[in-house]
């Protein structure tokens, strides 16, 4: 390394891709199914908690319930419905992802995630090519590093 050349240490985004294998598909499908099951449990808990809160308010209020009590019950129902809607959207996204994974072909490359990495740059380097680096994994093992490391 020539000490007389100025250098900079920069940070770049590194794209990580995976090669679709039977093992990878199975692992991703299991993760997605676990997410779906957890979302279902959260939906059940939410229903139960909402019903308990409403029952508690009704138990403590006058009969017939006054406008303030009805407003409290309505607020709880709105909150429960909002959270339910969020959870159902999460579940729907997980189901769509699960379906997409099932249709992926073996040995196909798919983007998995991004991470940051550092690199040195000095006069004369092509900054654009140094920024375009990606890692390809097969079952968690680095198979290839592409770009100007």
Automatic annotation (TrEMBL):
It holds the Pfam family YlqD. The lineage of its organism: Bacteria, Bacillati, Cyanobacteriota, Cyanophyceae, Nostocales. GO terms for biological process: transcription initiation at RNA polymerase II promoter. The keyword Transcription regulation does not apply. Keywords: Coiled coil. Residues 25-101 form a coiled coil. The keyword Coiled coil applies. Transmembrane segments: none annotated. It comes from the Bacteria. Residues 35-128 form the TFIIE beta domain. This is TFIIE beta domain-containing protein. It comes from Hassallia byssoidea VB512170.
């Amino acid at each position: 390394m020539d000490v007389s050349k100025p250098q900079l240490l920069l940070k770049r985004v590194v794209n990580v891709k995976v090669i679709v294998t039977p093992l990878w598909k199975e692992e991703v499908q299991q993760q997605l199914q676990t997410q779906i099951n957890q979302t279902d449990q959260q939906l059940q808990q939410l229903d139960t908690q909402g019903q308990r809160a409403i029952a508690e308010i009704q138990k403590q209020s006058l009969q017939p319930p006054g406008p303030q009590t009805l407003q409290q019950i309505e607020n709880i129902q709105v909150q429960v419905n909002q959270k339910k809607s969020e959870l159902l959207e999460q579940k729907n996204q997980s189901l769509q992802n699960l379906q997409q994974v099932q249709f992926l072909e073996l040995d196909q490359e798919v983007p998995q995630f991004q991470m940051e990495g550092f690199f040195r740059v000095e006069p004369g380097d092509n900054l654009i090519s140094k920024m375009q680096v990606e890692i390809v994994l097969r079952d968690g093992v680095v198979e290839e590093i592409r770009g100007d490391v």
